[in-house]
Amino acid sequence: MYPAWFLPTLSSAFIIAMVATFHILPSHLATSALWFGVYVERKAYKEGRSEFIEFLKKFSLLVLIFCFIYGSITGVGIWFSAAAASPRAISALIHNYVWGWATEWVFFIIEIVTIYAYYYTFERVSPQHHMRIGIIYAWGAWISMIIITGILAFMLTPGPWFKTGGFFDGFFNPTYWPQLLSRTGFMFSLAAVYAMIAASRMSNSPAKEEIIRMASIWGMGGLIAGALFGLWYLHKIPSSAKDLMDSLVYLKHLLVICGVFGALVFVYFAVFGYLRPSLARGWLSVAAVIVLFVSIIAGEAFREGIRRPYIIGGLMYGSSQVIARDVPAKKVKSEVEELNEKGFLSRLYYLPPRFRTINDKNMIEVGRIIVSHECAGCHSIKRNGLIRPLAKLLNGMEKEDIEDILDSLGDYPYMPPFIGNEKEKEAAAAYLAKIAKERR
Ligand code: HEC
Hints:
The chain has helices at 12-47, 50-85, 87-120, 127-154, 161-164, 167-171, 176-200, 206-236, 239-247, 249-275, 282-305, 336-342, 363-374, 390-393, 399-408, 422-437; strands at residues 310-312, 316-317. With 440 residues, it is mainly α.
């Protein structure tokens, strides 16, 4: 085991969530933008509309800056925070999908080269060549989504991979196609609002309204497709995830928020894009991005939430990153019994010797270490923490009662069992009882 990244108030999960959800905006814009861009460009050449090219310059500059500065920074940020929070899970994914990521990075490079080429060669190369650059970008960007979605979906439903350990058996898993197609739909709605922002900076002309109307049609189509494939996704999630929705009602609320805010954006497209494009304003489109972002946050929080208690579905528990089952094809063995017998500390190679045997003097400190591994990935610790703080959940409880809770942890559908021997359980309970009595 690696040392735990312990953030008593925020929790490491919260940091990843912040970085990763923001990343959706630039990443999904990057994958969708030039499909719309090339569509407008083709129309521009065919109908001799030079104003459309003016729009495309603004739009592709927005894509270049937003996606390839903020998208790149947050993309690296996801690796950084996920590797610090869940090094074993990242390692397990890399061991299975290193060639998937390597392939994805090839397409990233294609994206980066071609977006610059696209932006800087307007009117410098022939229209055919320029559109070809745009098409290479559009495919490169979408293929990067095709690849990363396989790994994302694997984390919920490894499916036949459990039997075979095969790369593609895990990649084309039960939730792969609905998730890919749903993301593909939604990405067009994001391209559409950004196109409306870019168009709002054009001088008033019929071309401006035409672009806004075209964008809104793409946006509405994207939302409808995204929602339909999203329903298919809900149909394909494992039954354990459906049970989880019954015990954690907030997951259902997230779906409602996702749907309602998505519907608001649909109304925005319909009214300010399709019916009355003259009413569209830049600030309104920025507001629509924010509303769409709320919908996205809810959807992604749902997708992450239904994976509990695992960080990799059925294979590895969240927070502690202990392997939960055998996968003979990969020579992977469950670690639960072994750690319950030998103790969780037996695998914390980084621990100094004074913490290796628990006694009355070091009990609270060792308890803190165990809790930081086994709980802090999903819970803030302190009372003022942001994510279901343990001090509040265990408010004022005594050590013995907390030990009983630790015994029954595995009965909750959303939490892993406590892993470790009796002495370690006592130490964890002692530490939790201490923070449960702290006022702040
Ligand atoms: C995989 C994530 C995860 C891990 C790991 C985890 N929890 Fe939880 N825990 C949850 C979720 C989700 C809830 C539900 C909170 C809610 O209702 O909003 C919860 C709720 C609780 C509750 C309230 C019980 C209830 O009725 O819902 C307690 C107490 C608790 N956790 C203690 C712990 C302790 C102690 C640990 C570490 C040994 C731990 N949890 C590890 C996800 C986790």
